[in-house]
Every structure is written in C-alpha cells, then in structure tokens.
Amino acid sequence: MPDDLTNPAEATPEDENLPETPEALAEPGVAVMTYDGPKIEISEEMRTSYMGYAMSTIVSRALPDVRDGLKPVQRRILYAMRELGLSPNNRHLKSAKIVGETIGNFHPHGDQAIYMTMVRMAQDFSLRYPLVDGQGNFGSIDDDPPAAYRYTEARMTPLAMELLEDIEKDTVDFVPTFDNERREPSVLPGKFPNLICNGATGIAVGMATNMPPHNLTEVCNALIHQLRHPEVTTEELMAFIPGPDFPTSGLILGQKGIRAAYETGRGSVTMQAKVHFEQMDNNKTAIIITELPYQVIKSKLIEQIGLLAREKKVEGITGVNDYTDKTGMRVVIELRRDVLPQKVLNYLLKHTPMRMNFGVILLSLVDGGRGPKTLGLKGILQEYIEHRRTIITRRTRFELARAKARAHILEGLQIAVQNLDEVIQIIRQSRSTEMARGRLIERFAFTGIQAEAILNMQLRQLTGLEQDKIEGEYKELLKEIARLEDILNDQRRVDALIQKDLEYLREKFGDARRTRIEKTEAEEINLEDLIADEEMLITITRDGYIRRLKMDTFPTQGRGGKGRIAGKTKEEDAFEHLFMASTHDYILFFTDRGRVYRLKAFEVPESSRTAMGMNIINLIQILPDEHITATVPIRNLKNAEGYFFMGTVRGEIKRTRIAEFANLRANGLVTFDMNEGDKLNWVKLTDGEQNIVLTTIKGMAIRFKESDVRASGRASGGVRGIVLDGDDDRVVGMDIASDDSDLLVVGANGLGKRTSMEAYKTQGRGGKGLKTMDITARTGNLIAACVVPREGQENLRLVIVTEHGTGIRVKVSEIKTTQSRSTQGVKLIELREGDSVKTVEYFDASKKPED
C-alpha cells in the first residue's frame, strides 16, 4: 500500500472506495467528534507532559526542602497535628483522625501512604530524633508491620514543636491548599535542624537523595562555629561533626568516605554491626551482635545467616538465636569448637548486611524549594543559617509591627486619660458610636484605631492604678521597639539569636553519640580472609582438570593395598599432577612451553573425592597448546629469597632468582627458552646451596651441586644436566638431595623402593649418572622419583595415583630400604588390569590428624 493515499498518482484501484472523512466511518445516527484546534507534535507533547510530571515528583513529593528537612507529606502531617492541638502536653489522638484530617484538608492521597509516613516519623530506629510520639504498635526493627491506624494514637514530640515554633508570626509563606478552602505553610520555621539531624531518603525522576542522620549536639556546635567563622572549611567542621550518627548505633569504619560526602555531597560510608566473642560451654565460641547498621532488618539478617549455614556456604555455625529484649539487642551465633570465630565473622561481614555501605547523596530542594541541588556539609549548614535568619527577621518585623500598633493605641489612651472629663463629655453628648468616634478624632487628632480603642476602654482603666499601668506598658513597649529595630538593623544580633536557639536545643535535646567511628578505614575483606589456612591436596589431570581435596580424602592403607578411587576422569584422560599446598599459598603453574602462571590455592574449587574438577583454563589464561608440567606452592613472591631450579625432560636445567617472578601477569610470563622437542617438567625452590638429583626413565640417576649452574635471567635457556641414553630416554624426576635422605623411585607397574642418597656420589653436572633401579618387564619404566627425608619418616605418607584414577596413601616407612641401587623394590599398589602408575607425591601426616 502506498505511504500517502492522498496522492492520486500513487493511489491504486482498490483505494478508490476508501472513506475520506471520519463521518463516513460513523454508523447512522452516531455523532462523530472531531478536533479543529492546532496540531501538536506528539513527541513534543510527550516531552512537555513528562517534564511536568517529573518536576511535580521532584518538588512536591520525593525530595526534602533544605530549610526544614521535610517532604510535603511530612510537613502537612505535622501541620495537621498542630491544627488538631496535638502538642506534647495534650492527649494522644487516634491515628485515623490524624490521617483523615491530613487527607481531607491538606494532602489528598492514599491513607496508607500518609499513615506509613507518620509511622516512620514515630520510629526511633528510623529517625534519630522522632517527630511523632506514637502510642501502640508502630512497627519494629524486625520489620513487623504497625497496627492499623484505628488502633494506634499519636501526638507531636517536643522537637516537632520546635519545627513549628513561631509559625503564627508571619515567619513563613502560606499557600492555598488543594481545594482553595484553606491555607498551608510552604515551609516550617524549623528551629530544629531537622534535615541534617534526621536525614532523608527519596527517589524522584532521574535523581535521588540519601542523607544520613547526625547527632544534634555535634550539629549545634558546628552551626555555632560556622556562625562565628563564615569562612570555615569542611575539615574544620568535621572536628565538630566527625560523621553520621545512626539511630541503631553500630560502627562506621574510617572517615575517607565521610569526608568525600561532606565536601562534594556524594560519598560512601561503611557501616558495620557491633559484635564480640563470648566463650560458651564445651569450649565453644559465640559471635554476639549487639548493634546493627542503619536500616538493616534484624529478622531478615538472622534468616540470611541461618540460610548460609544450612547451605554449607559458611562452615561451623550450629545455631542462631535472638535474645533481644527491652534491655537491648542480643543475637547469638553459636559456633563449633573446631572453627576459627574470626573466619566465620569475616565471611558474615562480606556476605550479609552486617557490613554494608551507606551511599550518601546530599540532594535537597534549595532556592525556596524551587529546584534540587547537591550540597556539601557546609552548604547544608549555611542554608539552615540563612533560613533561620529569614525566620528571625520576619518574626522580628511581625513583633515590631505588633508592638508599634500597641504603642499607637497606648499613646491614644494616655491622651484620653489626661483629658478624661472632656472625652467622657464628648461620648455622652454623642448620639451614636460613629458620631463619638468622629468627634474624638476631630478634637484630639486621634486615628481611627485610637478612637476605637478609647471607645472600647473599660471603666476600670480610668482608675489611677490602671493609668500607671498604661504608662508603664508604653515605656516597656518603647524599649521593645528599640530592641526589635536594633535586631533588624544589625545581622550580628540576628546571629546571636540563632546561636541562643542552638544552645537551647543543645542543652534541652542534645545527647551522646551512638555510632562509634573507627579511625581505620574499612579494608576489603578478601576471600583469603574467609578461608582457613590448611593443607590441601591438589590434583591436575592430563587434560587440565584441577581440583582441591582435603588431606583425609585418601585413608592410609598398608603397602600393597588396592587404594580408593581418587576421582572421575574422562575415559581418555588421566591424572598428571598431585601436590600439597596451603590454601593461602600461591601456586605457580609451569608449562611444557616454558611459561609460568599464578593462582591462589583457595581459588581452586574444592571438590569431592569422586568429582572431576574444573578445567584450569577457567582459572588461568593458559595457551591452547600448553600443558601444565610443574607446580610450585609458595607463600610469598615479593619478599621471597632463593631460586627456582628447573629441569626439562631432555635433561636441560637452569636456575633463576624468585624475585624475577614477583610481577606475574594474568597471561603468564616466559620462564625458560625451550629447545625444539623439549619440555619443561620440574621446578624446585632452593636456597642456592643444594644438591640436585636427576632420574631417568631407564633407571639412571645423577647427583650434582646446584652451584654448578650459574643463575640466569627469567627468559633465558638452560644447560645440560644429564646425558640421556638414546632418543627414547628421558628424565622422570628432579629433586633436591641430601645425605640424610632417601631416593624413592616408583615403576609403572607399582613397584618401588628407597635408596640412601649416600649411595649416589656427587658428580659434575652433564654426566650419565649411576643406576638406581634395575628396569625389567616386572617393574616397567620408572614413572616417578623423589627424595624423602630420613628423619620423621614414620609420619611421611606417599600418595600414588594411577592412570585410571585410583589413589592410595602409603606409609613411607613401610617401603623397604635397599642397600643396592640396582634392585627392583617391593609392590606399593595392586594394579587392576591395564592400569599403571601415573603420579606420586608425599607429605608429612604429622601436620594433620589421621582419619
């Protein structure tokens, strides 16, 4: 169909019968409404309408006025309560009456919206200084809902009265209500600095405010200082107001975020629950929560902690109980005896609202409530000062006008008393009040107001005593007028009155700070802080699947046992590496291509014994054609002294200082310039003075001094360590040797033996070495060789993992020590048909309890 049917050139025959006017579409007898006004672009209309809605939301609903700190609904509720006479010394009135009065006269919106606003103004855990004195159920910190407004009662608090003080003295502008039948204040006089003391929250269109509450005593002191020193800096103000003071107490960690918020109007304050540890029966420990961060719901926090414990996301919590009563908050988190309380607490601080940030946005309506603006601490305090200057000035003008009006009347009364007989005669001779008024004005030059006052004068005022009172009152009025005029002519007098009001508020309503501010900044709780520092077994398969296992995964068995399944692997996969590491260690992964990568041990997912694990490419950025061949756990890289001693399958070796690996990148670093066809396979930590032993697949071993290999740069190549016996020979083990240790070798068919290192004389590097095992079809080629210390050997355990994933843990002391280097050894593991030994590792079981 053509885009423009009004163009005859583009019309089709089917379009000729289309109706041309709206009337043609109408049914007979049905009127059709048409619009004959100017056409409006819909996008422009949408923009204009939405801007109107947005400004209405910003100005008339969501944001507080910087002068009194109230939103319109809050202001109307307080004014309605004043109109109902609900002062602190009067009785409470049903909340339903207050809500109805507010809706009917000032705020025609939903009753629940108004009631919940009033409820929040009464909650001592929501407002630092409540403005409504509630009687009945007004909710709780556990998020219990308040009772319906027909059951609760309320009246204003004394501080609410301070907000309204002098409102009847023309201190603020009044505007018509929504129905034009009454008038309401556009702002309250606000002697109490409500905005900074109680804070505010609100979400408008495209903007929001989130102001924390503060301590009244500190705010009054800061305001007094700023009155005296207008050029005060934010840093100086923070000596009086160090930070927010939340109604629920708690802790604030550091002042960095506070300072940013006070200077720019935006910042982040880290809040934390107040906790301590208590010893319980049976040597158990409990975490006790006595204070919570602001706006944290206690019941939901307890529920969340219980859920984390049930889902085993945090270990060691046996119960969470709430013993809160009228004396204060007390939440008890019971722990097992074998857990570290600080570890559990760190986890809860990181994963629950026990520690959270308060995002400070100091946004409010300024310029007489006409528009929003973000102010810093000094700006907010200055706006309060300017507002109070306006209020006191307007109040003084009102009182001055009233004093002058009264003095004017007293001047007339004095003249009348001095000419009393003549005044009485004029009044008696007049036929009407109007005639008497006119004759008095004509005779004594009275004004109409004076003449009216004389006509209304009571007979008792004609006594001598009353005449003295009139004269005394007049003299006092003259002094008062002079004082008021002096105030209007000197801003210092105005500021002195503001200071006097602040001192009054401080003395009558000021209290001690509740929230403690810690000097130390909140440190990021690293995942490492949440993980217990314990020894773990880490396995890596040939295809790169890595996992972390607890030390008791494989039970200790006698030599020659069948072992336990070490984990599931893919049919074509097999275990490649097994080593021990503390959860807080770094693990350096060295690849066959001569590159190195870094990972924290706890970042390796902990798995069950039968799980496959996670592919390591999800943890480090290993290249697709690389294969991990060596791993080194190390606690510290930056300050570590010593060397990495490296060896390849073709017998190349090199030595590099650890310090050269301090700045490892995510994509790894080159650590060995490899020859074609060679692979980096072993890396050991040394102090530079060790002996090294290399063992080959054909049962040869060579021992030489580490110092025979000079230290070289990280990216350099190596030198020859041992001469291999043909192209089918290769190195199967490289380790650190000493005379008080044994060389333990294991063949592919599960046979193994220990030989004293004293049987291997020290040679120069690059030789053929000595025979260490008689290689036959019964033993199979050597698979692994490692050096085990002789001292404390009864605590050493050998972990053997086969190609099919079977694992066994054997006591090293049960492996026979042979006197001859060329014997075949004893059976260490009973292999299933088609299986063979893949990897071997040993560890000291005395560091962990046996299962």
UniProtKB/TrEMBL annotation:
Q: Does the keyword Iron-sulfur apply?
A: no
Spans annotated as Disordered: 1-25
Q: What is the species of this protein? A: Armatimonas rosea
Q: What else is known?
A: Few gyrases are as efficient as E.coli at forming negative supercoils. Not all organisms have 2 type II topoisomerases; in organisms with a single type II topoisomerase this enzyme also has to decatenate newly replicated chromosomes.
Protein purpose: A type II topoisomerase that negatively supercoils closed circular double-stranded (ds) DNA in an ATP-dependent manner to modulate DNA topology and maintain chromosomes in an underwound state. Negative supercoiling favors strand separation, and DNA replication, transcription, recombination and repair, all of which involve strand separation. Also able to catalyze the interconversion of other topological isomers of dsDNA rings, including catenanes and knotted rings. Type II topoisomerases break and join 2 DNA strands simultaneously in an ATP-dependent manner.
Give the UniProt family note. Belongs to the type II topoisomerase GyrA/ParC subunit family.
Residues annotated as the enzyme's active site: Y151
Which reaction is this enzyme known to catalyze? ATP-dependent breakage, passage and rejoining of double-stranded DNA
Q: What is its EC number?
A: 5.6.2.2
One annotated GO molecular function is: ATP binding
According to the record's subunit comment, the protein's assembly and interactions are:
Heterotetramer composed of ParC and ParE. Heterotetramer, composed of two GyrA and two GyrB chains. In the heterotetramer, GyrA contains the active site tyrosine that forms a transient covalent intermediate with DNA, while GyrB binds cofactors and catalyzes ATP hydrolysis.
Q: Print the organism lineage.
A: Bacteria, Bacillati, Armatimonadota, Armatimonadia, Armatimonadales
- Domain named Topo IIA-type catalytic is located at 63-530
Report any Pfam family annotated for this entry: DNA_topoisoIV
Name of this protein = DNA gyrase subunit A
* Keywords, in A-Z order: ATP-binding, Coiled coil, Cytoplasm, DNA-binding, Isomerase, Nucleotide-binding, Topoisomerase
